[in-house]
Every structure is written in structure tokens, then in C-alpha cells.
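cron nightly-structures :: item 1 of 1
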Amino acid sequence: MTSTTVTRTLRLDPELNSSIAASAEREGVSPSHIVNQALRRTVEWDAFAQKFGFVSVPASLMNRLMDNLSEEQARELGRWVGKNHVREFLTFWFKEVSPRNVVQGYPRLTAKYGRAFEYEERADGGRWVIILKHGSGRKWSAYYEELLRAVFSDIVQRQAAIESSEHQVVARFSLA
């Protein structure tokens, strides 16, 4: 696979340049890779997240808040997010709500930049499997399970077989 790149000259503050070089050294990648990651995050996430009202909070705070909910309250919160927040998110980011945006856009961006869970997908002849691996316990699984149920029933309007364990949620469905 051939990759096409564009050369662009940027003026950087010396301190920023040093930080980029140090990050590249720590990660074992080129400074260009670090700059590309930062720019991609800015155009794919930060530019929208700020306007949409996202805030950064430590995972420990989110886990503490979830610990204070019952499992049924976690499920209710997941249903509310699935019915309301996901539709607004998709409309804001992609300007349309489509099954493909629901499946590919929302969880990919949330996993990559929100870092709430790891996301995997597999498509085979119209049948899809998506996995949200969060590692945060039963209440988070209940939350994600209900979020996905609401998304599939209210937004995608497709049947999905959803199962969960303590640390992940799996949805199987068809977009055809």
C-alpha cells in the first residue's frame, strides 16, 4: 500500500519543538508522527468536542461516580445516553444519523479519543460484530449494554443480539 503525504513547513516555538522531539523519542517514533497524531486529534475530535461540550475528567472520577449508582441506575443512564446523546453527537459530528455512522463513527471516535473503551469490529457479508472492551466492571457493562440497546432500537432501528461480561460488551447485528 502506497502512502501519499504532503510536505508542509510549520513554525514552532522552541519549547514545543523540544516537547515534540522528547515525545517522539519516548514513543520510538518520528517527530512527524507525533505532529500528525496531534493534528488528526484536533480535526477529528477536539474541534468538535469543545463545541459539543465535552470535558476531560480523570477515569478515576468517572469510576467513582459509577460506583455510586445501582446497576439499574447505570442501565437507565445508558438508555438515556443511547436515546439522546448519541443522536446529537452523530448529527453534530457527521451532519446525519445513519447506521454506518452509528456503527463506525461513534464508537471509533469515542474509543480513540475519549478512551472510554477499546473498540473492535468485524464485518462479514453484512453481519457485524462490535466489541467494547472497557475493563471497568459490571456496572459499566450494564451501562454500555443499555446504551447499545437504545442505539440499535431507536436510532439504527435494527435488531441486535447484545451480550456482556464484567469487562466487555458484544453486539451482533446486520446493517442490510
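cron nightly-structures :: done
The chain is about 60% helix and 15% strand.
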